[in-house]
Write a structure and sequence with these properties.
alpha/beta
Length: 244
């Protein structure tokens, strides 16, 4: 472990840093004043005491935190699991966000409003930074076989985890792979846009996507500028949750 901290409330799970990508010191990490947390809806680590512990840990170390609920992003999962009705998938995904807000609003009210800002996924798809980053990523996916293979490998891992958990796919495995790739390209595009907007540090209680590890190592040329400046912090929470 790189660092470890328990919440002031000893009843909460402890939070520690498992890994920082790229490999920088904690002093350098905490010289950044802002960070963001992407919320994977349905991951139990973003509920109850574990979410509370994460927020306590963050507000002690960063001046500003952006919470990004990945609700609309989940429409790709809905398409994979429940069929090709895009309107229905988008509505179901937004419903997940609504449910998360209802479940957690009292928790977020415990923290200073000037330190934690809550946003939903769809709002990040309309920025100029996102549009530019996504266009670059789409072009890279089409033109660079190594990058495309890396995205497909991460996407394939997600589909395999669904099947391992006995989830029934409503589309073919090939279609599921394509939808999962779209999910990842959109997610990575938002990460790049956030970095360009000054939210370079991402905190997440799980491992980084391998394609983003490769980007951090400089494996691919002509990637969006925001991705070259971002820092991923893998947090370890003393509780179990499903993989990203």
């Amino acid at each position: 472990m790189i660092s470890d901290s328990s919440s002031e409330n000893m009843d909460l799970p402890s939070v520690s840093i498992a890994k920082i990508i790229p490999n920088i010191s904690t002093d350098k990490l905490f010289s950044y004043k802002r960070c963001f947390v992407g919320i994977s809806l349905g991951n139990t680590v973003f509920e109850g005491d574990s979410l509370c512990a994460i927020l306590h840990w963050i507000v002690k170390r960063f001046d500003q935190t952006l919470i990004v609920a990945g609700d609309y992003l989940c429409r790709y999962n809905e398409l994979i699991l429940n069929g090709p009705d895009e309107d229905k998938a988008a509505k179901a995904a937004s419903g997940l966000g609504d449910s998360f807000i209802l479940k957690t609003e009292q928790l977020f009210e415990q923290f200073p409003k000037d330190k934690i800002h809550f946003t939903r996924w769809k709002s990040h798809l309309v920025t100029d930074e996102y549009r530019k980053s996504k266009a670059i990523l789409d072009n890279l996916f089409l033109s660079n076989s190594g990058f495309r293979s890396a995205v497909e490998k991460d996407a394939s891992g997600f589909v395999k985890r669904l099947m391992k958990r006995n989830k029934t796919l409503a589309v073919s495995q090939e279609e599921a792979l394509g939808l999962s790739c779209k999910y990842l390209l959109e997610e990575i595009g938002v990460f790049s846009a956030l970095s360009e907007q000054g939210w370079q540090v991402e905190l997440y209680p799980g491992s980084e996507l391998q394609v983003l590890v490769d980007i951090a190592r400089g494996k691919y040329l002509n990637v969006p500028q925001g991705l070259t400046a971002r820092v991923n912090v893998e947090l370890k929470i003393a509780t179990d949750g499903p993989p990203r």
